[in-house]
Amino acid sequence: MHLYSTRNHDHQTTFEEAIFEGLAPDGGLYYPTSLPQLSGELTPDMSFNDIAEVAASALLGDEISENDLRTIIDRAYNFDAPLHQLENGLSVLELFHGPTAAFKDFGARFMAQTMGYFLEKKNRAITILVATSGDTGGAVADAFNGVAGINVVVLYPKGKVSALQEQQLTAKRPNVTALEIDGVFDDCQKMVKDAFGDKDIAQHRTLTTANSINIARLIPQTFYYFYAYSRLQEPFIASVPSGNFGNLTAGLIAKSMGLPITHFIAATNKNDTFPKYLETGTYTPQPSQQTISNAMDIGNPSNFERIQEMYAEKDIHEDISGYSISEEETAQAVAEVFEKYQYSIDPHGAVAYAAAQKHSGTEHKVILETAHPAKFKEVMDSILPEPTEIPAQLQQSDEKHATPMKNDFAELKAFLCS
Ligand SMILES: *Cc1c(COP(=O)(O)O)cnc(C)c1O
Q1: What are the tens digits of pLDDT across the range 269-299?
Q2: Rg of the Cα atoms in the chain
Q3: Is 217 in the pocket of ligand 1 (CB under 6 A)?
Q4: Which of 51, 260, 270, 372 could cross-link with 101 by S-S, CB 3.0 to 4.6 Å?
Q5: What atom in ligand 1 is closest to the CA of residue 244?
Q6: Binding site membership of 349 for ligand 1 (Cβ less than 6 Å)
């Protein structure tokens, strides 16, 4: 796969280089110079990993052999993405069966395994440095757990993440260090940013990011769109609960590869920068507002530049409609899905459900359910008549392993140079 920077089409690179760089040197995002058409059938008897192998080989086969891709996929995924039908013409694609119970497991685990694969070939080692406000850190820490050649350092704000998130972040893992920072998320992010700019640290370690703009997180998110089609065997509309729009961008890539997704519903909470853009043609980033679907509280979606790139010469309205869903509508959707279908949908999936209700398209609608409802137990229990049960993978069990640190870059620097 060759990729170019959205800010300079002459700057091109390979997949291997792009995943270690993250952002292009000019600050742009990497986007494939061309996308293959998927050939061959996607049949209902193929497993998730079979389907992933077909899609991954089409995209990355020039850099990683099919055998190695299969090994990467089998190490990344020992869980499924079941398509649960609510009624005729309406299904939920459950993306929460991974170890941290959110769809970010799909992207983070594939990225971890591909990075490990490339490092092993070159006998190199790197440090992944991330700041987290909660969910991403857990998914990344877990995904890189035990991957050779990679150390992970996660900074999180003390007392500002949920008990469940903290447990996922601080579980004992041989190559992961959780730093509990006496500050807020913005402080953690600033410290990480300073570390990337520091020459002394660069002498001690090669630092890399693992954030959601990395192309290695986007590619594997196409797999479950192909998988949904293999189960449905008919064209469908995808309703995608969106924050940074990685999930939706991956769907657009799958469509560009020939998958018959007839339309995308960009479902946001009241952070409506993208629906406003579709309506007015003007992109105006906003400060984020807090909601009950908090993983989508984003006022300046980081993948916007990629979407803009894809629609430079094509009317975006043909493929995407946007809806902003209020807090009341979200809660109402959680209640309605439970009453009508005896199904617990989490607040993020509920935003996508509510948006799908507003959309007039007639093809089968697939709602992407991005988190297990138990991750938002307090919200769920305040809306539904029955308490939400906590699944085994989310039960509190591990001891907390975290290193306390002041909100002070010098301390982080000393740690990274030691
Ligand atoms: C990250 C996240 C989203 C938003 O996904 P994007 O790819 O950033 O649009 C939606 N739901 C949940 C539960 C998430 O964790």
Answers
A1: 999 999 999 999 999 999 889 999 998 999 9
A2: 20
A3: no
A4: 372
A5: 8
A6: no
Cα(247) to centroid(ligand 1), Å: 7
pLDDT at 27 over 80: yes
Q: Is the CB of residue 304 below 6 angstroms from any atom belonging to ligand 1?
A: no
Please state, in angstroms and as integers, the Cα–Cα distance from residue 94 to each residue in 256, 267, 387, following that order.
Answer: 23, 16, 20
Q: Does residue 247 have its Cβ closer than 6 Å to ligand 1?
A: yes
pLDDT at position 319 = 98
Structure tokens of 392?
Answer: 């085994």
Q: Where are the alpha helices (DSSP H) in 181-326?
A: 185-196, 199-204, 215-221, 223-232, 246-256, 273-280, 304-310
pLDDT one-digit tens code per residue, 372-409? 999 999 999 999 999 999 888 787 677 899 999 999 99
- Quick one: pLDDT at residue 84? 98
Question: Do residues 349 and 241 touch, judged by C-beta distance below 8 A?
Answer: yes
Helices and strands per DSSP (H, E), number in the chain: 17, 14
Q: How many CA atoms, within 13 angstroms, populate the side-chain half-sphere of residue 151?
A: 13
Enter the tokens of residue 321: 């409609």
Ligand 1 mutation target, pool 161, 168, 244, most atoms within 8 A of CB:
244
Q: Which residue carries 């392993």 as its tokens? A: 401
- CA dist 124 to 62, 111, 382, Å? 22, 16, 49
**Which atom of ligand 1 sits closest to the CA of residue 298?**
8
Amino acid occupying residue 321: S
Residues 6+ positions from 284 with CB-CB distance below 8 Å:
273, 276, 277
pLDDT of residue 23: 87
Is residue 102 lining ligand 1, measured as CB closer than 6 Å? yes
Ligand 1 neighbour 135 (Cβ under 6 A): yes
Q: Tens digit of pLDDT for each residue in 11-21? A: 999 999 999 99
Determine the average pLDDT of the residues in 356-373.
97
The pLDDT assigned to 396 comes to 67
| 193 catalytic residue (yes or no) | no
